[in-house]
Design goal:
Length: about 325
């Protein structure tokens, strides 16, 4: 499955790794994991990570972004990870590279790179990178293994989502052979400041239900300014406070920003991706996102999700 990817790695002396902006654990985990996987098995190659700040995933060992000038892309291989569309790539200079490769587990919406491995059945992009390491028989160090395990944990919802398979656990077991304790990952990953716990409690109090039990939260711009928290903390970070409500199989978090209304769609049962695509977004079958122009459009999306919850095909 990975022979063309491995050929591209072997053929280039400099490799620059990209992923999506506003990174989650899978984006940072796969980027960091692949970087150190290549460095361990091809020690003569230059390997760099680029993109915006890792934010709350900065605890992942080795995840610091590198300073890469434009001219360093000449003759280089750019690898794009965990990215379902070109508009989502953090640092657009990947297009300056001689060769491009993409590894991704989002639903395919269009070609981005010269060589692509797109596997939506995988629980995470970290799982794809792990499969590459296993297929190639690569040496695996602790830094690589911890980064990849972190992304597998976060994108599988701690191995709860339905993309979790027997292969997922085989890959996780393979990574754990590197000799780390899961406490090294779970403690920094799920430990929160009191202020963050209180913020979640605040948003739990905002949950509303539609006629057919779609849970939603809407946060307008004035409220965002009053809370004094960043857009990502609210939009992505508070989406799953609605995830375990009995009788709710679809939930959506709407967050007003300068760029529009961020819409984070989730489901435990339905394929909500067509709704996200209808409004210019995308993602996974049960976890997608979009940005719409205004509240009125967001409410139309909510109406579509309510119809889906009632059994209407969208």
């Amino acid at each position: 499955m990975f022979e063309q990817v491995l050929d591209a790695v072997r053929a280039h002396d400099r490799i620059i790794i990209h992923r999506h902006f506003r990174p989650d654990g899978d984006a940072i985990g796969s980027q960091t994991g692949l970087k150190y996987l290549i460095k361990a098995n091809f020690p003569d190659k230059e390997v760099y990570s680029v993109g915006d700040d890792p934010a709350r995933y900065g605890f992942i060992e080795g995840c610091t972004m590198d300073a890469v000038s434009d001219d360093m892309y000449a003759g280089a291989l750019a690898v794009i990870l965990d990215c379902g569309g070109a508009s989502l790539i953090s640092d657009t200079r990947y297009s300056l590279a001689k060769t491009t490769v993409r590894l991704d587990h989002h639903l395919f919406t269009g070609r981005i790179a010269d060589t692509e491995v797109i596997r939506p059945e995988y629980e995470s992009c970290c799982g794809i990178v792990t499969a590459l390491a296993m297929e190639a028989g690569f040496t695996l160090d602790k830094t690589t293994a911890k980064a990849l395990f972190t992304g597998m944990v976060t994108d599988s919802g701690r191995f709860r989502y339905d993309t979790t398979s027997t292969d997922t656990f085989m890959r996780a077991a393979y990574l754990m052979q590197a000799g780390f304790s899961t406490d090294e990952i779970y403690l920094p990953l799920y430990e929160d400041e009191l202020s963050r716990v209180q913020l979640r409690a605040y948003f739990i109090g905002k949950i509303k239900l539609t006629e057919h039990n779609v849970a939603y939260i809407y946060t307008d711009r004035a409220e965002m300014q009053r809370l004094a928290v960043d857009d990502f903390t609210v939009s992505r970070g508070m989406a799953n406070v609605m995830s375990d409500i009995k009788g709710v199989s679809i939930w959506v978090n709407f967050t007003e920003t300068e760029a529009g209304v961020l819409c984070e769609l989730r489901s435990s049962l339905h394929n909500i991706n067509p709704v996200a695509v209808k409004y210019g977004g995308g993602g996974h079958a049960k976890a997608s996102g979009a940005t719409v122009a205004d509240r009125e459009t967001a409410m139309r999306m909510l109406n579509d999700l309510d119809k889906m919850s009632n059994g209407t095909e969208i």
